[in-house]
Amino acid sequence: MSDVLIDRPELEGLGQYEFGWHDSDEAGQIAKRGLSEQVVREISELKNESEWMLERRLKGLQLFGRKPMPTWGADLSGIDFDNIKYFVRSTERQAQSWEDLPEDIRNTYDRLGIPEAERSRLVAGVAAQYESEVVYHQIQEDLERQGVIFMDTDTALREHPEIFEEYFGTVIPAGDNKFAALNTAVWSGGSFVYVPKGVHVEIPLQAYFRINTENMGQFERTLIIADEGSYVHYIEGCTAPIYSSDSLHSAVVEIIVKKDARVRYTTIQNWSNNVYNLVTKRAIAEEGATMEWIDGNIGSKVTMKYPSIYLVGERAKGETLSVAFAGPGQHQDAGAKMIHMAPHTTSSIVSKSIARGGGRAGYRGEVRVDANAHHSANTVRCDALLVDTISRSDTYPAIDIRVDDVVLGHEATVSKVSEEQLFYLMSRGMEEDEAMAMIVRGFIEPIARELPMEYALELNKLIEMSMEGSVG
Amino acid sequence: MTVIDTTPVVPVQTRSERPWSFDPEDFERPTGREVNWKLSDLRRLAPLLVDEETEAGERSLDYDTGDAEARGLLVESTGHDAAPRGEIFQPEDLASAIAWKRCANALHVRLPEGQAVEAPVVVRIAGRGADVHGNAHIVIEAMPGSQGTVVLSHEGSAAYAQNVEILVRPGARLEVVSVQDWEDDAVHAAAHQAVVEQGGFLRHIVASFGGGVVRVNPSVRLAGEHAEGELFGLSFADAGQHLESQVYLHHEGVSTKGDVLYKGALQGEGARSVWIGDVLIGSGATGTDSYEKNQNLVLTDGTRADSIPNLEIETGDIAGAGHASATGRFDDEQLFYLQSRGIEEEEARRLVVIGFLMEIVQKVGVPEVEERLAAAIEEELRRGASLAPASRAGA
To answer: SUF system FeS cluster assembly SufBD core domain: which residues (chain A) (predicted)?
Structure first.
């Protein structure tokens, strides 16, 4: 039995990084390594920021210094904080159109297929992040007419300081955790979205992020505000070239979903396998609001990410769908948090993880129901699929109930791909690798069907590569 | 100049790598941030974290072993270096290391080889007051092919740190029941560590009713091929009580089987239960079949139930593994059904709670122990009868 499970070359394409090239690295050469108050002051000065933001950054730096490294979760001892560039500026100012971009950056995005995506009108607006600063983005005119603001975070700070100051750091305070503090100190880039009352953004807003400087930390900061009764779907996708030494990505994403609004946030994280991806994502859902995280983790060396939803208003609803794939050398410590703080709030978490080739994938979660959150309900369902005997799967759910009138459940199953399943499919004329891929696809299907078309296709492509057995 | 703390800390990556030591000096005083203390009541447990000679020496609590000695089931007390004491026991926290150090002579109950011991061995442990600090090490050994039940029964009041080392030799079938029926001011921290050898079977049951803070943490290694472990628990927390169990089941051997089920009921202001379950399926434990579940029934407002069913799997070649946790108010439908059959609401509520908890009681399989646990549940319900199911009215 064991030998059936150990060697699975047809699965090696899964989680393997496809975009393994990088452009010549000019901006990165002049950036300093290491973090100090001077670096933080320079970032703020370069961006011409107002005093309050500089104060926030310095506070973040102070808290980053004081907070201990996490004593749980993944092994982060490989991060050399003194050997990271905390700010890299790729071009002096933002480009107004595609043609204004430097050629190497255009090539990068050509290979990522952004212009095609735009032309096909699948994408409402593109904010492409290149080395810490957004250098290109465009919003379609109809969005602007609706009053939707979609721009990079640096520009938003300049152009909409009043909205910015009102919400920045209110969902995730600087001292929330060590890496949120680091982000507060050195953040650069990210997306800013404001959807006015009652506006439904019909097509997803999309952003691409890339790390393109060796040892460069990327600390983008995203702030999304959906005003009463509005709807928006934001999509974040990540790809990064492979380098020899480890990179750090530590983003902060804050989302405010006002009364009766709905926000869906989709991530397909496919960092190269040397990136430490330590991200804090949190949403506040007010009365009758709906927040949905769809979180796919395929790349990176280590990911620690637990998108959370604070259900602060009555009848608020939260939903998280999470899929994690860990290949050789990868540790996906993914999960979700739901904090019920008001009556009649409901939430659900569905997590699927697959580990192969010695990788480690897990679910770490927290569900808390406060004393006043009566008539609340939550379900957690985590499933793990084991495809060989050398990989590892973990589940660490925490549930904390402080009120009597709730319904709460956690369930997890771990299953291995059985010889019987394989034999059955093969007896129907399928090749073994085809059969294996079909089982894996079936396993993640509940997540895949929630993705927008182009992302579902991307995910399916990874599975197809495994079917061919031609990669690796 | 900002000083940045980037001291690399490599978190413990698997439950089996948690640090341990016989020397209390090796443990920092817990701060409440540690994974095994973060949900505990450190303030009230403080007396058990002081490494000092226990006031009344060896006999700070009364131990009554009944007729065990007459039946030849008691071995002369065991010193620090006398086997089998310490064969598998490894203190994993400060209270346990102090208890190890400060208990010179361990109680040793042994079921002789090949013998089926019919009547349960009952060890009654009675405290002499909440201010009397006691430390104990108890060894329970089921020799190859033996069979029997050992009950540890706690009452009175004490500040009690206790280590229980359980050895299930090849082919033995052992049941250990630990009943905590303390007075309200008792604090009790127990570390049970067990090994089940080839073809052995251990049923381990923790039943906690009384006590201010009661923390009974069983760890079981299914070390031998075809070893089986059943870890059951039952708790009923009242106002101001903190009842905790951190359960660890480690599948090491081939084709081992594990079943963990803990059920808890909570009633009254400040009633608190903590359950952390760790199941680790080691890389050599092929063919493992394992399931863990924790269910809590919240009877009034003002309570808090923490439930953490962790699962770590290091091999894909298993028969099956799963875990579940559920916390909720008792089933309105059941209640409605019973009321529709003419049963008064109060009585219906009582029946629902009893039905929920009796699942564990019935697993004991020893009538006299089952009767005692059922009586304790009835007593808890009587005490809670005056408490209103608060927020339900606001539905």
So the answer is: 209-443
Q: What is the pLDDT of residues A249-299, one digit of tens each?
A: 899 999 999 999 999 998 878 777 788 999 999 999 999 999 999 998 888
Beta pairing, strands A231-239 & A252-257: unpaired
Name the maximum alpha-carbon separation found in chain B: 76
Option in A65, A386, A400 nearest B306 (CB):
A400
Show the domain range for B117: 21-383
Could you tell me if residue B4 is inside a domain?
no
The two structure tokens encoding residue A227? 């005003």
Q: Could B316 and A389 be called an inter-chain contact, meaning their C-beta atoms sit closer than 8 Å?
A: yes
Is there a contact between B78 and B345 (Cβ–Cβ < 8 Å)? no
Beta strands in A218-359 (DSSP E): 221-226, 231-239, 247-249, 252-257, 262-270, 275-285, 290-297, 302-305, 308-311, 317-326, 331-340, 346-355
- For residue A79, the chain B residues in CB contact (below 8 A) are 6, 8
Task: Tell me, yes or no, whether B389 lies in a domain.
Answer: no
DSSP result, A409-436: EEEEEEEE--HHHHHHHHHTT--HHHHH
What is the spatial distance between Cα A440 and Cα A412, in angstroms, rounded to a whole number?
17
Q: Is residue B15 included in any domain, yes or no?
A: no
Closest Cα in chain A, distance from residue B123 (Å)? 35
CA–CA separation, A38 and A87 (whole Å): 12
Work out how many CB contacts closer than 8 A connect A with B.
173
Instruction: Kindly determine whether residue B322 and residue A411, on different chains, have CB atoms separated by under 8 Å.
Output: yes
Secondary structure class of B114 (helix, strand, coil): coil
Selected residues 416-445 of chain A with any CB under 8 Å from a CB in chain B:
416
Alpha carbon of B323: minimum distance to chain A alpha carbons (Å): 5
Per-residue model confidence as pLDDT tens for chain B (395 residues): 445 566 666 888 888 889 999 999 999 999 998 889 999 999 999 999 999 887 555 568 899 999 999 999 998 778 888 889 999 999 999 999 999 999 988 999 999 999 999 999 999 999 999 989 999 999 999 999 999 999 999 999 999 999 999 999 999 999 999 999 999 999 999 999 999 999 999 999 999 999 999 999 999 999 999 999 999 999 999 999 999 999 999 999 999 999 999 999 999 999 999 999 999 999 999 999 999 999 998 888 888 999 988 889 888 788 888 777 777 766 666 777 777 778 887 788 788 888 889 999 999 989 999 999 999 999 998 888 777 554 443 32
Q: Does the beta carbon of A38 lie under 8 angstroms from any beta carbon of chain B?
A: no
What pairs with residue A354 in β-bridges? A325, A385
Sign of the dihedral through C-alpha A86, A89, A94, A99: negative
- Note whether residue B16 is domain-resident: no
Alpha helices in A141-208 (DSSP H): 141-145, 153-159, 161-167, 178-186
A371 and B CB contact within 8 Å = yes
Contact criterion met (CB below 8 Å) for B132 and B158: yes
Q: Which of B315, B334, B335, B387 to mutate to test the interface with A (most CBs of A within 10 A)?
A: B315
Nearest CA-CA distance, residue A411 and chain B, Å = 4
pTM, two decimal places: 0.83
A70 chain-B contacts, CB cut-off 8 A: 9, 11
Measured between alpha carbons, how far apart are the two ends of chain A, in Å? 23
ipTM, 2 dp: 0.78
